[in-house]
Amino acid sequence: MSERPYDIVIGLEVHVQLKTRTKLFCRCSTQFGLSPNTSTCPVCIGMPGSLPVMNREAFGLALKTAVAINCHIPEFTKWDRKQYYYPDLPKGYQISQYDLPMSEKGWLEISDPKGEFEPKKVGITRAHLEEDAGKSLHDEVAGKADSRIDLNRTGTPLLEIVSEPDMRSPREAKAYLTELKLLLEYLDVSDCNMQEGSLRVDANVNLHIHNGEGQKIATPIVEIKNMNSFRAVERALAYEAQRQYEVYQETGRTIGQVPKQTRGWDDQAMVTRGQRHKEESSDYRYFPDPDLCPVITTAAEVEAVRNNLGELPAQLRVRLESTYGITPYDSDVIVSQGRPTVEYFVTLAEATADGKRASNWVQQEVLRVLNETGGAISDFPVKAAGLAVLVKAVIDGELDVSRAKEVFNDMVATGKSAAAIMQERGIEKVDSSALKALCAELLAASPRIVADVKAGKEQAVGAIVGQAKRKNPNVSPGEVRAICLELIQEM
Amino acid sequence: MSLLNHTATELLAKLESREVSSAELTAAYLKQIETLDPQVQAYLRVLPESALAKAKEIDARRAAGQPVGKLGGLPVAIKDVICTQGEVTTCASKMLETFVPPYNATVVEKLRAADAVLIGKTNMDEFAMGGSTENSAFQATKNPWNLECIPGGSSGGAAACLAASMAPLSVGTDTGGSIRQPAALCGVTGMKPTYGRVSRYGLVAFASSLDQIGPLAHTVEDAALLLAVLAGHDPLDSTSADVEVPDYRAALSQPLKGLKIGVIKEHFGEGLDNEIAAAVQAAVQEYEKLGATAKEISLPHSKYGIATYYIIAPCEASSNLARYDGVHYGYRTDEKAMLAELDAERAALVKAGQQQEADNLDTPLVRLYRQSRAEGFGPEVKRRIMLGTYALSAGYYDAYYLKALKVRRLIRQDYDHAFKEVDVILGPTTPTPAFKMGEKLNDPLAMYLEDLYTVTANLAGVGGISIPCGFTKSNLPIGLQIQAPAFAEAKCLQAAHLFQQATDWHNRRAKLQ
């Protein structure tokens, strides 16, 4: 890695749509894709006299997430109104949390399986619950600037997770997001679908430029919005770092000299662009929402949530590595696939008593097929116990790996058991005396090869292995090779 | 004696004994409204068809021996700040002139279930902001005791319709005195229950932490009848209290022995009308005659009540009223004219070479907001939105809103201390009797002082009732306020009922032709 003349300082704000059936303050459905404005009621469209009532399920999911990202859960939390005018915000304020969020001061550990950065704990400043706004659809047909509002999303529960500016490269930012998303999936608290907007990421980034005299100069902080994938986040951050460096060299502007800027990422042009400043909207006039009661969470409730979290990715990786002797890279691949894949691997590893081999089979065969077909492991025709029979046959030398892979493909295609397919294909273990006889016969017919081997060209024996396999496909190439070399020595 | 001079309790007995039908009673009130409301203008809208249909339906049920609800076909007037499904609900604002709620307020549901006949929607100060009902965008209600005087507010229509016998029961709302003050000025009984006692769902919010729905009636007994229907926990209102509702009418028949009343020292200071002071003193003596012991108590922070209230209420109002933006429902400015005007302004600036100014003009959306709100709200509403917006702004929040919250806590503590010594607190409801229309219209501060004795109950969350306790020389009613601890409405009603059993101020009705 080349030495950059600056550090990149990144903090991320992630909005997670919680997987509740109904909205945060009313009973309307949160289902995605309903026709516009059909999932609305007087409460979520802010009709006069309507009142919010907190959805306990949403608070529960938020609590679970906050505990899982190691946050402190204060006993007392309250709701605040964040006030601004926008057509997709029908009450003129968003119910959010301001000075007393439901959780704060957590962390999430990130690492790179390829070791591109040192493992580190990224601080979580806070995670708070709030309601989503509606969607504005700006339709500019025939020169008319016609805007339409869809309030189906209005009031959907969002958990805003704000990190500390602890990330030092776009790669770390991506690792943080990947780890956070995986955690959310394990917790089953969100669909985490960036396309449908159930996971949204904004980044704050600036540079600490080394001035050559041991000091660092901070550039103005820029907030980047409109990033629709983790890859886009990584690219946008890399672009933005370079841009800020160039701007600094040109203008010498440092933090505090210009107001915080918001830039949007253009995924086509691969650039960030300054967004037009909205109305000077920095004063949201937050104040406690008098329509809602504060929420009290006891230490016992937090403990109960903690005890019911289940095994989370970080713990799982450690367990897979220590129990089954696989590498951090392998455990990361398996854990990243989600809990069902982990269970598949564990069953296979337990049944075969060979973690490394189980890991290889899962990654190279099972995941390969799933990638090709796009299926889910829960629907995969070859169950872990069935695959274990095949892998054990390999371990026992009943067939070699390449033939086993053929059997596996047949199992996937037909749904038949390993034993059935091996029988169909006439695969059986060759008796060692018969194998020895076959080797002796082939060597007798090839004095030239025997001579070559004796002269030190050991690889010449490969031809015999090939001939043996043609005579009997069930032979193990390794065994044939070993027997032949032994016989030649005795000659 | 005319049917309409009876109390609601008496009328209910007549309905139940089938001496009179709900349809006859409803028709009688409709006739009275037709005769007198052109002078009083208490109603914004009368609902003759739906009222008579409901009355007939109740009569049929009663005739068939089927169950009939607690209000048994009594007409009830509703302040136009409470949502009625399918019926225009305006809050006396141009902003909601044509607004038809697709839902009923919880209290409306309860009234319907109790077989009340909703006879009409009463006038009020716009969005319940005011103390004279002169802030209505549509009409000024007159005091039936003197048509040149205001009826009080904001529930001016709710009180005036009773005083003119245009309804036997009426539902109002009280944020800083809006039930008790007009009840006092119109010579009727009006109660603000404890915050959380009655659901606010469907009550168009003015100041959410202070607003409370309550009954207005001729007598305490009638108020108890209506409160029993309105009160109770509502899962749709997070701030409604899950506290059992006692049988208020039954409580009234309980003997009230050894009542300890507290007379608030601070309520007899500067600003209090002499006739009112005398009437309230006389009421205190009446209580002593009835066996109560009276002692002077102090609510030392009550002097900060108005200042505190006029920070907290406008702050909440500025937020609650943000939704009236001309986008989703309610009043919207004439868009075509607005866009043309904006274009003309821009063209003029460009022509004058003022490109910078032209670029700084409102976007059409911002202009839509500004203009719709400028045209849709009246001056008092705008004044309070501005007050609240200012007080919540960055840099002012701590000095105003946060400070006000702290004082509010002190006021609540004052009440806690007082109620350790006494059962109820007595005092005048208002500093002055009804004043002339227009008298305080251009003096908002004088108008705000109308709430001097009532706001503290809202700030503390406790309940209070105003009952008639005399008349001035010019024959204007005087109100006695009785306040009780949180959720002690029964005690409050008992104490008020004790007075009404011994006096007949509450039986007087305004005489109108």
Describe the protein's architecture and organization.
The complex is a heterodimer of chains A (491) and B (513). Chain A is α+β, with helices and mostly antiparallel strands and 491 residues long. Chain A has three domains: 6-303, no CATH class; 311-424, no CATH class; 432-490. Chain A has 15 helices and 16 strands. In chain A, the strands form four sheets. In chain A, strands 1, 5, 6, 9, 10, 11, 12, 13 and 14 form a nine-stranded mixed beta sheet that branches. In chain A, helix 14 (462-471) packs across helix 15. The longest helix of chain A is centred in the middle third of the chain and has 22 residues, at 230-251. The model of chain A has no long low-confidence stretch (mean pLDDT 92). Chain B has 513 residues and is α/β, with parallel strands linked by helices. Chain B has two domains: 3-233 and 244-265 and 419-507, Amidase signature (AS) domain (Amidase signature (AS) enzymes, Alpha-Beta Complex), CATH 3.90.1300.10; 326-376, no CATH class. Helices cover 42% and strands 12% of the residues of chain B. Chain B contains 18 helices and eleven strands. In chain B, helix 4 links the parallel strand 2 and strand 3. In chain B, helix 7 runs antiparallel to helix 18. Chain B is globular. Chain B starts with 7 loop residues before the first helix and ends in an 11-residue tail after the last helix. The interface between A and B is large, with 29 and 44 residues.
